[in-house]
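Box 3.1. Reading complex inputs
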Amino acid sequence: MFTYKRRVNFYDTDLMGVVHHANYIRYFEEARVEYLRAAGWDLTELMDEGIVFPIVEVEAKYKESARYDEIILIHTFMRKVDRVKLEIEYEAVSEKTGRVLATGRTVNTFTDTKTGRIVRLPKDKVAGLMEFTKGDRNG
Amino acid sequence: MFTYKRRVNFYDTDLMGVVHHANYIRYFEEARVEYLRAAGWDLTELMDEGIVFPIVEVEAKYKESARYDEIILIHTFMRKVDRVKLEIEYEAVSEKTGRVLATGRTVNTFTDTKTGRIVRLPKDKVAGLMEFTKGDRNG
Amino acid sequence: MFTYKRRVNFYDTDLMGVVHHANYIRYFEEARVEYLRAAGWDLTELMDEGIVFPIVEVEAKYKESARYDEIILIHTFMRKVDRVKLEIEYEAVSEKTGRVLATGRTVNTFTDTKTGRIVRLPKDKVAGLMEFTKGDRNG
Amino acid sequence: MFTYKRRVNFYDTDLMGVVHHANYIRYFEEARVEYLRAAGWDLTELMDEGIVFPIVEVEAKYKESARYDEIILIHTFMRKVDRVKLEIEYEAVSEKTGRVLATGRTVNTFTDTKTGRIVRLPKDKVAGLMEFTKGDRNG
């Protein structure tokens, strides 16, 4: 489990005075990138090798509203890691109240930039990530 | 079924050269608003009466990429309409190729601005929408 | 002069209940693209030829607020057109009240995708645009 | 002078592979909020007192492109501070290369939430900010 922390920007809010729901999808992206970085994955390096990782599924459930300037903790769990995809779950929690704001899930596949086809990453590349995140498969 | 048409803006794309996945959640919002408008629902009027309609669930599956300047048709279906919520499905299709780009689903509840609690809309308010969208429950 | 019309989306607003100021910069982009399209310029074709047109200057002055669902007219003027750049002015007006919401100005240069250097477009390419927009230089 | 540091998100980029120009306006907002926080200004408190601070002018000049995952330093200067407005300048610099990416300037006025009119902040409120930022008026 990895926790990503970020503040709600003014421009993230909508006229209801709370974070617009679509922005959580962006927050999840930030959390995912930072988790992968913590695991030693540099996504720009992968892109230089011709591999991208488009999202193929996303979902979110919204429980409570987050307001401008609030600090959100995004607990992030790599539920499935294999050579062709990652399945990740997210729990966004208000730092102040400890209450769950939203939960989410994404699936992304490793894809060849040129062909647009799914690729299998080398075993050793994936092994490190599996080891680093193994606690996340018992949640 | 209602079809909402929109063009991909330059600023909707990301470095992969395609629409960033989070933007479909915004496109779905646009389609939802226009469908409700076509059915005679003016959301600003509802807000003036103290009713908002926050999204409580969203999901999307991505099939193919959309590029800058492409025209996207978003076929929109009201799968469930009752006094407390709307469940809506979306199918985003490339106008040029006819291929499905993404599918999605949202649930929103009617909520009292002051209390933050779910409210039941008046029967007659909902009756019109149910009638207008009844073809969408046989899909 | 070209007028681009668009509605304010829910997600364009912020907690003040009005369009967030940064979104006008995106609206100006939409207006610019549609004006160029009307003049026969297909930007994706230019990109295929290795030419992009990054913004090098942008400015906006905000007069009045625009609200959710309002229709905005963006009057767009090509103040300078030459082989290396475009200078464009914008006036965003509320369709309902006729009042000016914001004014703006952008400068963009034609740039070679590979070298990143400014390029001079062919004379005949620019001639058509100059002719089409000549009324805008007397404003 | 206050320096705000942030990383370029994936979703901040466009099909040119760089930060979309409109996103700098958002980065400037983040920098402004953090500078004011460092000076002891809590904007949510001001809003609770019925005061908002809409942007009335914004401008940016773009020098070089910033790429995904790059760290940007935004040097922020309060050029004018008085009881009705703030004028702030920004210089966005690549942490890695030290080169200037963009410069900018915003003006915002203090405004009464109810009347929409400009208000004069109490002298002592402004005095603290003037003192804290006085070095920025000699740049």
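In summary: The mean pLDDT of chain D is 96.
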